[in-house]
Amino acid sequence: MKGPTESFPVAANRELGNAQLRSNLGNATSTIRAKRARVVEELPDWEALRDAGSAIKADVLANLDTYLLQFEQALTAAGATVHWARDGAEACAVVAEVARAHGADEVVKVKSLTTDEIELNATLAAQGIHALETDFAELILQLDGDWSSHILVPAIHRNRTEIRDLFQRTIAPDITSDEPGVLAEAARVYLRERFLNAKVGVSGANFGVAETGTLCVVESEGNGRMCTTLPPVLVSIIGIEKLVPSFADLEVFLQLLPRSSTGERMNPYTSLWTGVTEGDGPQELHVVLLDNGRTRVLEDEVGRQALHCIRCSACLNVCPVYSRTGGHAYGSVYPGPIGAILTPQLIGIENAPSLPFASSLCGACYEVCPVKIDIPRVLLHLREKSVDAVGGRTERAAMSGVGWVFGRAWRLRLAQRIGRVLQRPFVRDGVIRRLPPPLSAWTDSRDLRPIAPAHPSDENSGNDDE
Amino acid sequence: MKLGLFSTCVADTMFPDAVRATASVLERLGHEVVVPREQTCCGQMHLNAGYRRDAQPLADRFVATFAGFEAVVCPSSSCVGTIRELYPQLLGIDNQITERVFELSEFLVDQLGVEDLGAAYPHRVTYHPTCHSLRVTKVGDAPLRLLRNVRGLELVELPDATECCGFGGTFSLKNAATSSAILADKCQSIESTGAEVCTALDGSCLLQIGGGLSRGGDRARAVHIAEILASR
Ligand code: SF4
Questions:
Q1: What is the pLDDT of residue A23?
Q2: Which of the listed residues B43, B76, B111 is the one where a domain comes to its end?
Q3: What is the distance of C-alpha A51 from the center of its chain?
Q4: Residue A152's pLDDT band (boundaries 50, 70, 90)?
Q5: Deepest in the core among A143, A194, A246, B135, taking most CB within 10 A?
Q6: What topology does CATH give the domain A43-292?
Q7: Per-residue confidence at A2, pLDDT binned at 50, 70, 90?
Q8: How many domains does chain B have?
Q9: Which positions in chain A touch B132 (Cβ < 8 Å)?
Q10: Considering only alpha carbons, which residue of chain A is nearest residue B20?
Q11: pLDDT confidence of residue A464
């Protein structure tokens, strides 16, 4: 999995300068957020559902070994072939092999973060196999060589005029209108042929039912249904954490997911399939069980709750940081609050040390998360790991210094006194407008309230303790 | 009651009037208030920045300083949240005193059952519910109940009130550009209300909001809620 190539603050600075991005994001996130709030409010048992979702996921993670074997057994019994992939390369190799075995130089794809995570498209392309994205937004990004900035709405950073111009250049030279209906029709015409001719389909899965071996894909456009039913061969790649114990458990998640992600009571298409059924759908089904760092995440008692995630994207939409910077600033297929805790765990904290700090710890993510991942808590945990792994000496020294000052009351009083003297040349009309680095990071955009002339903790009688 | 007042490092250093106001509100209600000289910082900054080991002695110090009080009142919801939530979770400190630490407004409304302090403050005021007061300390509508009972105070609703102000401790320096972008929207919301004063429970957030308002030449000022509640 690719990690960030630059630190979050650097990437965020650049993205913040993109005014179009910021206004698209602001509009889109606030619209989805309001929709979500409305449909969540309707359910009197929402909190109980969240508790149930969290409990089921915790059980799955605690007994993953058992559930995975059960899942494999059920799948095999239903006529599927199961592959275990330690990493992305192994998973991609399975897909390539299946495509080659059927002489396919193109596969049609359902939108899938897991396949993005393992860079399936690029790996297949290197072997002469084209992976065609059939989700509307994913198709847009693929046509433009761009990449996703939102888990659910990957092209959230593009607007419809940009999309019309792109279609003119690529799949629909005659298109003139930027009406959503016209744009969708252009994509439909382009895709239909390819669905019908595809020999191999590739999907991820939102859920896998351990008891029955059933796979489940939840989507809005119906393209996923096409990919999983029309081609004679289907390869489904599923992260090992995506299991639920029984069919009945889907009841909980199929309520939590659509309301949290698109703000709908129910999503338009829910596809469920169990192995191979003669005369109906793909006659060859391969299921790839992907680790790719997940067992490492599982080892961490605090961090493992990140594996509860059902990729609803509610945490992105409420995040004050994400809604300003957008997803590209996170430098990974998993952006926003979930990305800030998942990416560093999947690829190692030393490879994404700035991500856990990309948060004001406002807690809005935890409040909306349908499976109750305590994201702020995991952020703190990962911050500590980041500091231990790659913490800078200057910061370390500054923190120790502040810790020393706070270690005794007389030292705090002394520091307040020294600060008062040092700030003197900078105070104008009761505020500080400019300070030298590193404090200029504050005063570049904000005034600073000066240290007061006297302090309440010093106004009480009594002795200094030390 | 004999109450310990935890002034917090931020308020003690930059918002001393908020601390004095907290003391006077409580004293007027007949309580004995002590601001122990030994207090410094709860360790929040270290805990939030990934320096848990450096926070431990500060937390131990807090507990030792305040152990003898019936309750501890503090004019900052994020410090109270740190003590009540993070001390047990991260530092293994879970004792009677951490459970008896309260933010001022929740102490007044939920513990003392007081909503009218006889205060008067003839200004147009908007209230920013800080993230920690909403989601960690969970003070509910206690601050609003208190503000509604202040004579002459015109309370105007803040649009997108529950949005973060962008402070976030060291986040405000490490991710200064993002922090400022979030702040800009908050300041715009405040200005749109036409309020003269934006109030909140946390000195740290008021530092951020006040800094943004003042830099933008905006009309509103940032004032700690304790100062409003102590006004006559
Ligand atoms: S962390 Fe929670 S809120 Fe965020 S995408 Fe995952 S399930 Fe949804």
A1: 87
A2: B111
A3: 21
A4: confident
A5: B135
A6: Rossmann fold (3.40.50)
A7: confident
A8: 2
A9: 363
A10: A456
A11: 52
Q: What domain range is B77 assigned to?
A: 2-111
Summarize the confidence of residues A301-318 as an average pLDDT: 97
Nearest-CA distance A156 → chain B (Å): 19
pLDDT of residue B80: 98
Which residue's CA is the closest to the ligand 1 atom numbered 4? A315
Q: A134: burial class by Cβ within 10 Å (0-12, 13-18, 19+)?
A: buried
Amino acid at B41: C
ipTM of this predicted structure: 0.96
**Per-residue pLDDT at A461 exceeds 70:** no
Take atom 8 of ligand 1 and give the residue whose Cα is closest: A312
Residue B193 domain flag? yes
Ligand 1 near A319 CB (within 6 A) = no
Is residue A258 in contact with ligand 1, taking CB distance under 6 Å? Answer: no
Most confident of A152-166, A178-192, A347-361: A347-361
Res. A413: pLDDT tops 90:
yes
pLDDT digits (tens, 9 = 90+) for A77-134: 999 999 999 999 999 999 999 999 999 999 999 999 999 999 999 999 999 999 999 9
Q: Alpha-carbon distance B184 to B215, whole Å? A: 10
Q: By C-alpha distance, which of B166, B49, B173 is closest to A435? A: B173
Whether residues B104 and B128 fall in one domain: no
The answer to whether B81 contacts chain A (CB < 8 Å) is no
Same domain, B167 and B188: yes
Judgement on whether residues B102 and B149 belong to the same structural domain of the protein: no
Q: What is the pLDDT of residue A124?
A: 98
Assess A417–B contact: CB distance below 8 Å, yes or no.
no
Sequence letter at residue A349: I
Tell me: do B140 and B223 sit in the same domain: yes
Helix (H) or strand (E) holding B182: helix B176-193
Is residue B116 in some structural domain? no
Beta-bridge partners for A432? A427, A448
C-alpha distance from A361 to closest chain B C-alpha (Å): 6
Residue A373 Cβ < 6 Å to ligand 1 = yes
Entry pTM: 0.95
CA distance A300 to A307: 11
**Which CATH number is B64's domain given?**
3.40.50
Angle at A374 between CA B82 and CA B87, to 5 degrees: 25
User: CATH 3.40.50.10420 spans which residues of chain A?
Assistant: 43-292
Average predicted confidence (pLDDT) for chain A: 95
Distance between Cα A105 and ligand 1 center (Å)? 35
- In this prediction, residues B146-169 reach a mean pLDDT of 98
* A111 burial type by CB count under 10 A (0-12 exposed, 13-18 middle, 19+ buried): buried
Which residue's CA is minimally distant from atom 7 of ligand 1? A309
* Nearest partner of A157 among A135, A139, A142, A137, judged by Cα: A137
Question: Chain B, 170-209: which have a CB under 8 Å from a chain A CB?
Answer: 170-183, 207-208
pLDDT in tens, A162-173: 899 999 999 999
- Residue A138, Cα to own-chain centre: how many angstroms? 15
Q: Which of B111, B140, B165 is the last residue of a domain?
A: B111
A65 interfaces chain B, CB cutoff of 8 Å: no
The Cα of B128 is separated from the nearest Cα of chain A by a number of Å equal to: 13
Q: Are B96 and B192 found together in one domain? A: no
**Which residues in chain B are closer than 8 Å to A320, comparing Cβ atoms?**
163-164, 166, 182
- Say if residue B138 is in the same domain as residue B39: no
DSSP A355: G
Q: State whether B19 and B101 are in the same domain.
A: yes
Q: Please tell me if residue A294 touches chain B, with a CB cutoff of 8 Å.
A: no
Contact of B101 with B74, CB cutoff 8 Å: yes
- pLDDT exceeds 60 at position A135: yes
Number of Cβ pairs < 8 A linking chain A and chain B: 193
* Same-domain check for residues B11 and B105: yes
Q: How far is B202 from chain A (nearest CA, A)?
A: 13
